[in-house]
Amino acid sequence: MIECRDLTKKYNDLFAVDRLTLRLEQGDVYGFIGPNGSGKTTTMRMLATLLNPSWGEATVCGYSIYTGAKQIRRLIGYMPDFFGVYDDMKVTEYLEFFAAAYRIDGPARRRRVEQVLDYVDLGYKRDALVTSLSRGMTQRLGLARTLLHDPQVLLLDEPASGLDPRARIEMRELIKRLRRENKTIMVSSHILPELADICNKIGIIERGKLIWNGTVEAAIQAVRGKSVFTVAVLHDRNAEAAERLRLFPEVESVTPDPKTHALDVRLRDGYEDGSFIPERLLQAGFRLRLFKEKEVNIEDVFMRITKGITS
Ligand SMILES: Nc1ncnc2c1ncn2[C@@H]1O[C@H](COP(=O)(O)OP(=O)(O)OP(=O)(O)O)[C@@H](O)[C@H]1O
């Protein structure tokens, strides 16, 4: 649905987006993550055909951004990070104005406006002035506006920025709902954990370069690399157990977790099955309190992937 090859935008000496290559299939929810100024907005604006690249190619729904702008604009919904709302306009008037721009006319326009208002749960604000809405409501109105023409592909630029925790959760739920409808969604954020549970793929961009691109599971796997198990024994004998575990030929390292004091046992390459750990510890007279495969927190993944670049 979205494909970029070497997509590049240069401003004088600055590569705002530097040879970006990625591919999204229908139904993908792509978390586009990067710090401020890393090139997220520039990428989305190019895909939305609002900004010309310096070079490179991109297609959306099979249309080139160079020659198919008209078709692309009909098929996508772009929600910018900042969008203007007009003074003295009611919520319904605002949406009807944009519906008219999409040539939704007659009674269908009213119906569609009510549908999208319901979708984002703003029906009860239909007669409020847009300027009176909270930040969370304004973002939901922005999403409603983006959905008016029922686009297949959504480009959502930091939809949760500036929202309080509750409004963030509501925005996330809305994106999950759109995902269930099989929309293809590219959603940006500078916070990875915010996106981890709603995306199936992530891309991490830094200074215009995509430094990671793949499935969420692949990112976790790449960081974890090897099998790691969390182990704890009873009676304050973790240090003793650590000594014993270090003697096992399958074990590469044993490190106590500073927070929980449980032991992280990392296996050597080629070993995945850690079931020998509880067996041998029991044989050695230890009593097990905890044994499980270590969970990798998505925040750790982000820190590990970006570490080499930012430091
Ligand atoms: N019109 C422009 N002229 C010159 N430089 C620009 C222009 N637009 C963007 N840039 C630069 O390109 C880089 C990428 O900007 P961009 O807005 O795409 O980043 P971003 O990841 O969306 O950041 P944010 O999270 O702050 O929105 C930044 O260094 C920015 O200053």
From TrEMBL:
Keyword field contains Nucleotide-binding: yes
Keywords from the UniProt entry: ATP-binding, Nucleotide-binding, Transport
ABC transporter domain location: 2-232
Stored PROSITE patterns: ABC_TRANSPORTER_2 (PS50893)
Taxonomic superkingdom: Bacteria
Entry GO MF terms: ATP binding; ATP hydrolysis activity
Coiled coil feature spans: none
Keyword presence, ATP-binding: yes
InterPro entries reported in the protein's UniProt record: AAA+_ATPase, ABC_transporter-like_ATP-bd, P-loop_NTPase
Family: Belongs to the ABC transporter superfamily.
Protein name (database record): ABC transporter ATP-binding protein
Species assigned in the record: Thermogemmata fonticola
